[in-house]
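[RESIDUES AND BACKBONE]
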Amino acid sequence: MKVMSKVSVILGLLLVLVGLVGAIWGGWIAYRQFLALDALRSAPADKPVLQLLVAALGLLLGGFLTGLGVGRPRKIVETPPAPPAA
């Protein structure tokens, strides 16, 4: 199960990275729209809905998988007591 835990953490971190990139991209689109409206100019009517949905999904799944991989219960291996020396 250690391998699945590592795979889950790596996949989760990659999804978090994808989510952050999507959030930055969608935020940049929204910021450009705000600047265009603030300056009373027109700008291409981009809507960052898809980018923000990808960001939310990536962050949600990435956080879940990372938490799943990090928070897995560890197996405790008990060693039998050593026999008394004669």
In short: The chain is about 70% helix and 0% strand. The two ends are 40 Å apart (CA to CA). The helical segments are 2-38, 49-70.
